[in-house]
Amino acid sequence: MTPALETRALTKHYDDGTVALQDFDLTVPDGAFFGLLGPNGAGKTTLISAVCNLIRITSGEVSVFGQPADSLPARGWVGLAEQDINLDRFLTVEETLVYHGGYFGMSKDEAEARATEMIDAFDLRAKTATRTPKLSGGMRRRLLLARALMHRPRLVILDEPTAGVDFELRHELWRYIRQLHREGTTILLTTHYLEEAEELCEEIALIKGGHLIARDSADGLREQYEASSLADVYVKAMGV
Amino acid sequence: MTGMYWLCKREVLRVYKVWTQTVFAPVVSSLLFIVVFGLSLGGRIRMVEGFHYREFIVPGLVAMAMMQAAYSNNSASIFQARSDRYINDVLSAPMRPWQMNLGVNMGGWARSLAIGVLLLAAAIPITGAPVHHPFFMVAALLLGMVLFGALGVIVGIYAETFDHHTFVNNIVILPLAFLGGVFYSINRLGSPWHELSHVNPVFYLVNAMRYGFLGVSDANHWLCLGVTAGLAIPLYLWAQWLFSSGRRLKA
Questions:
Q1: Which option is the CATH number for A5-238: 3.40.50.300, 3.40.50.150, 3.20.190.10, 2.60.120.620?
Q2: pTM of the model
Q3: What is the ipTM, given to two decimal places?
């Protein structure tokens, strides 16, 4: 079966000399709920950016469902909710979704119908005509996730989707992400919340200094590191 | 092509949403120039190149307003998109680089055209300025829009702060426009200012426009159009290269 995501010897050196990823190999199976854990600067966001064509990779290969990540079909299969809120300040909630759908090739009618679906699913109905800078932090986070799912991607990448959100919203987002996964969508999640990774992910990869240092289920990692919790695994693996 | 259509639409929507700032204000500013310089002070100035002063300044003012709009719009739009990082929504979309470049440029062209149409609709009846060569005028306008729209995209991509965007507008474009013969014929200048005016690229655009309106120009009108095209095409290709290579747009 073609993996949802595959990187081969992926390397990224930034202009300032920082080596974010070095010969990084990773395979994420189709339909997986896959977590990436690592400290700041480990290379998680660089990996995500490479998959989504947001950086120029130094060398290596990235493929999405067997297609080069920079090909047009592959781009259409990926949905990204970035760590930072990056919503278009000139657009309303509804426009944000409809225009995103349009960028990803949806027709006007299709995009409008899907936007209505997303607005209801993420409880954004009361703010449909509100411009994004006027939304609360929680609303922005929901809209960011709704935008990532707008074009029905096969691979959804969530870069710390619950960073800075309250308990209720975090659990609400978890519920929605789980539902998405049950429907067959492959999820790649990065998070700093270890309990979030343990709660949601079937498999977890630990990244440090641009290298993959371990990957397994939460139970497998605990066994491998002879640790009682994922937090202990993290401490041992990262040498904290 | 759907993605490019929506990107064009987004850029035009941005212009429309803040129309008082993007369209109304530049039209009013240019009309004030026409009223103050053309109608009030123009009566004290003898004919220029066979035309009343109020007629003489219209082509340059229309060109200046349209070019500034094309530049400012694209520069500000792409700088904001980079700064707030919502440009990632476009860069990750299944669009080809030429579609992204064209889509982003479209906003500046739409704003520029809106200003041009409104200015012409107001200035021609007020001043009585003729349009002798409408097709030539349209060609000059389109090339000018491409030139300054592409310059806006390039500056918006390279700019590290909003000051860089305003610096180019205030310290480069505006002085070149004023010194490019918007308000005077360079035939009245002595040496070396007369010769130096010929190295100003805006001089050629202003005079291509003037030929389209009045049928007169301080330089051969085909040369004026050629120089404008000769600058517009490489600048557009430069903007295209930035999207194709991802330089400055992607780390």
A1: 3.40.50.300
A2: 0.92
A3: 0.93
